[in-house]
Amino acid sequence: MSARFLRAWCVVLVLAWAAPAHASLLEGDALDTMANVIAWIAIIIVPVVLIAAFWWVHIMPEKIAEKRHHPQLQAIKIVCLLSLVFGGMLWPIAWVWAYSKPVLYKLAYGRDKEDPHGHGGDAISLEPTPDDDFQATEQKAT
C-alpha cells in the first residue's frame, strides 16, 4: 500500500470517529422551555406583527394622498379599504393613484389640490372681499 492511500484511510477513520454533534447549547428541561417559548412567539406574536404590517402597508396610499392633498382622497380611501378586504389585490392601484396628478380634475375644477371646504379658502377668510364691500355700499345707499 502506498503512503498516500494510508493517509487518506486515516483521515476517513478520524472523521468517522468524531464525536456526535449537538445542535443546541441547552439540554433537558431548558431545551423544552426554550422550545415552548419559541412556539408561543410563533403562534401569538408573529401573526399579530404580520397583520399589523399588512394593515400599515395598505393604509400608506391613503396617508400619501392626505399629505399631498389629493383631490380624490375619498376614492383612494375606499380603494385602500377594498384592498384590505380583497387581500391586497387593489393596493398597487391605490399606491399609483395616490402619487398621480389628477389632470382631468384640474381641467374640470381649475385646481389639482384637495379643497376640504369647497370654497377655495375664502369662506374662512377674515378679510372682506370686494363683493362684500360692494354689498355694504349698496345697502347704505338704500
For this structure, the quaternary state is single chain
Integer-rounded radius of gyration: 35 Å
Helical coverage, percent range: 55-70%
Mean pLDDT score, rounded? 79
Give the overall shape, derived from the CA principal axes: elongated
Major pleated sheet: none
Q: Give the tally of β-strands.
A: 0
Order of helices and strands: HHHHHH
**What is the structural class?**
mainly alpha
Regions with little confidence, pLDDT below 50 for 5+ residues: none
How many individual helices?
6
Beta-strand percent range: under 5%
Distance between the termini: 130 Å
Give an overview of the whole structure.
The protein is an all-alpha fold and 142 residues long. The protein has a domain at 30-126. It has six helices and no strands. Helix 2 packs antiparallel against helix 3, helix 2 (29-67) crosses helix 4 and helix 3 (73-85) runs antiparallel to helix 4 (91-99). The longest helix is centred in the middle third of the chain and has 39 residues, at 29-67. The protein is elongated, with a radius of gyration of 35 Å. The relative contact order is 0.07. The model has no long low-confidence stretch (mean pLDDT 79).
